[in-house]
User: Fold this.
Amino acid sequence: MSNPSAALNRHDIKHPRTDFRTRDVVNQAIASIPTVGLQRAAEFLSAMNVPADVAIRTLVYPNRRRH
Assistant:
């Protein structure tokens, strides 16, 4: 490839966080996993109207989380 940045996928591009409410809800869910389990954490995110793609990314692919 002549353009190295073309090889980046959408997960490699970092965008500034703008939704701090969702961040806090996701952090709560992640912190609760050892106590309530992954299923309950996912149900909590759904009940809190966290978009499914965000919930999946944060629960299933923790290395893709923003810090």
Q: What stands out?
A: Helices lie at 20-36, 38-47, 52-60. The mean pLDDT is 81. Residues 20-36 form the longest helix (17 residues). Residues 19-64 form one domain.
